Amino acid sequence: MDGAFYEELLEFAVSLANKLQACGAETYRVEETIVRIIEAYGQKKVDTFVIPSCIMASLETSDGKMITKIRRLKGGDTMLDGIEKYSSLCRRICNEKPDMTEARKLLRDTEKSVCVYSTFIYYLSAFLIGAGFGIFFGGTLMEMLAAGICGLATGASLRFMSKFNANTYFKSFVSSFILGFLANVLAAIGIGKNADIATIGALMILVPGFLFTNSLRDIIYGDTMSGVNRLVQVLIIAVAIVVGTSASVSLSRQLFPSIDTGLIPIDHPLFIQCVAGLIGTLGFGLMFNMHGRGIPLALMGSIISWVVCSLCMQNGIDESVSYLIAAASSSFYAEIMARVRKFPATSYLLCALVPLIPGAGIYYTMDFIRRGMGAEAYAKGMSTASIAGAMAIGVLLISTAFRMWGVWKKSKIKMEGMGKGAKK
């Protein structure tokens, strides 16, 4: 093979990995995509280094020459359909090993086939997230409506600012301010008395729960730079949300002193919670462009996770441990579905974790800070952080176990192949 082929091979592998990264794929998936494609064509000496905004990959040719490619990612979003289709393309390339001209054509065809929902579906998803979690967190039907309206406003705010390339932190601050203020305005005019519930429901759109889980996953897998990068993003986004929501609530409570505060959320039956969580999860699935026949299976994971968590807490298990068990159950379900349907576990895991995201904990921590209740804010903040950490650990335990099993299985197959070759 000449130098031109190596150049083309590395360029193609990095291009495909870049598409995955732009769709929100995990760091290890992006790195493994490059390695698997290069190794499929018989080249073993390849190194990769990936952080959320950049890919660096190098390949050593048979004559000892080093070729390096660097690709910068300037923007991206969570595109579940893209992750599934580009991962499927990677498997196809590794199995068929087409020439680079055909491989590039397949990549262009795959890029065209990635589905993006219409503007109407985007706003519907924003409404469903707010409305679903408005009920999930203990609201009435009117508060569900208010949360849905706030979700629409949040979605519109994010979409508008994205057109002007506003950064994530600014978008989080402005959107959280708008939704918090609107929730209190709606409460003042009689659409949902509990403005806190409406705010929490819509706030779920902004909470960086998935980013936090991925940051810890990267750190555990040894991708420390990537994990720390994501974790810093999580902290800054969280601060932007806290400041924006706190400012809006303080302003609205001064403008509308008649708003009832301190209202106790309704303790809905588990069935109602599951249905509400399912609606909110469907909203996330649509917002993140999840397509195909796997949608019902992915949504089923949200019911499994919340039922497991609720039953654990009802039986006296510590809250953090309950979330850990529920997250582990979600991860196990996602890994099984991924292997049954030959798709990445990301879609199933994302949907299963949605009801576990501690959106209410983040909001009430902020509210205690706003009211100067330091001890309560510290207690609620630590509880929220422990829940988020427990979820990440639960996911990591199962996903790591499955990865180890996959490595062992490949090693066993390789050894069996070597044994058969020796007999011959």
Describe the structure in your own words.
There is one protein chain. The protein has 424 residues and is mostly helical. The chain folds into two domains: 3-116, no CATH class; 119-406, no CATH class. The chain contains 16 helices and three strands. It has a three-stranded antiparallel sheet. A hairpin with a 5-residue loop joins strand 2 and strand 3. Helix 10 crosses helix 15. The protein is elongated and about 80 Å long. It starts with a helix and ends with a helix. The mean pLDDT is 84.
Question: In a few lines, what is going on in this structure?
Answer:
This protein has 424 residues and is mainly α.
The largest β sheet comes out as:
3 strands, antiparallel
Structural class: mainly alpha
The average pLDDT value, as a whole number, equals 84
Q: Number of folding domains? A: 2
H/E element order: HHEEEHHHHHHHHHHHHHH
The strand order across the widest sheet is 1-2-3
Break the fold down into its secondary structure elements and pairings:
Blueprint: H1 3-22, H2 27-40, E1 46-51, E2 54-60, E3 66-72, H3 80-96, H4 100-113, H5 119-136, H6 141-163, H7 168-188, H8 195-203, H9 209-220, H10 224-255, H11 270-287, H12 295-314, H13 319-341, H14 346-353, H15 359-370, H16 374-423
Antiparallel strand pairs: 1-2, 2-3
Helix pairs in contact: 1-2, 1-3, 1-4, 2-3, 3-4, 5-6, 5-8, 5-11, 6-7, 6-8, 7-8, 7-10, 9-10, 9-16, 10-15, 11-12, 11-14, 12-13, 12-14, 13-14, 13-16, 15-16
